[in-house]
Amino acid sequence: MSASWPLWEVFVRGKRGLNHVHVGSLHAPDAEMALRNARDVYTRRNEGVSIWVVPATAITASSPDEKDPFFEPSGDKVYRHPTFYEIPEDVPHL
Amino acid sequence: MDLEAQFERTVAAEQRVEPRDWMPDGYRKTLIRQIAQHAHSEIIGMQPEGNWISRAPSLRRKAILLAKVQDEAGHGLYLYAATETLGADRAELTEKLISGRQKYSSIFNYPTLSYADVGVIGWLVDGAAICNQVPLCRTSYGPYARAMIRICKEESFHQRQGYELLMTMMAGTDAQRAMVQESVDRWWWPSLMMFGPPDAESSNTEQSMKWRIKRNTNDELRQKFVDMTVPQAEKLGVTLPDPELRWNPERGHHDFGQPDWDEFWQVVGGNGPTNAQRVEHRRKAHEDGEWVRAAAAAHAMKHAAVEEGVA
Lengths: 94, 311
Description:
The complex is a heterodimer.
Chain A: E1 7-13, E2 20-27, H1 31-42, E3 50-55, H2 67-71
Antiparallel strand pairs in A: 1-2, 1-3
Chain B: H1 3-12, H2 25-44, H3 46-50, H4 59-84, H5 90-98, H6 116-133, H7 142-170, H8 174-193, H9 205-210, H10 218-236, E1 246-248, E2 253-255, H11 261-271, H12 275-288, H13 290-310
Antiparallel strand pairs in B: 1-2
């Protein structure tokens, strides 16, 4: 049996104005076939107007093991949120 | 906090487990087994209905049936993709299916003898599948839950086209009505078996419920299916072939008879009417497709080499 086709991650833009969102993965011999397969597998009912396919091996992900320290820097910066600031209620448009 | 406690807490809090999270080996193995079996069912499930594509009575029915069978292939692919996020290998899963080492739903080991079966499969078999699958949209493993959401959206078309097909036949001749009833008689009990053995004999249920892979017991789902189906059968004008079937006002549910569980175990064990034929057909399709896979891979390699040469 021949070696199996590489894995591609599929991202679909649902409609104009939205981000591409990850919808799943599939196997295909090359990028062009990956796009065609993605159309057939993930957009049979007009779910998308644009598709990206990315070789799964090209994705670098943060490790779940480092979750706490990796995202910690933003944890204690409550002053980045608008609700941190107390403004009298009678000040309009703020 | 230790990994296992963190996992338990995530699951108990109704949060989703995602591919790179730590998970117990048993959880991973159970998921791979269940999702692969589900994927295989979708793929094998193309056969009984595919059998009628060339003989569907009109272009409209043919187009509908083609779209449905194509959806089953899509569902299989969503689910195989979910197993791969757990570290399963796609080629290996196919290998396990065609060598009989992994199972698929026993319902697909029954033959489709008449065109009415296309309607009854949509109504009863896909109806039962929807009962099983809707709760799985909240299963604890993220990629599985997301695949199920997609599948459930599409199954609704499957069930409705089946019921509409049957309504059309029931509005036809006496012979057509008899054909529908005969088909319902054959598919009713196997449909009830789709929920698996009674809770007392279901070995995997307890742990799977604890891990929130499974959200309802087999008997709960079977009851739900019966309650849902009875008024649909009345409206259609067919009789469900169970003399014990009646409304129980005290329970607020229908009482119903048990399927022949010996038959169920026989079919699960490989001795159903079409087990050998289904697996053989899948094996042949896989092997006959080998040259296509090889040619596509060769083309991709040649193309990549040319591009590299240019650069």
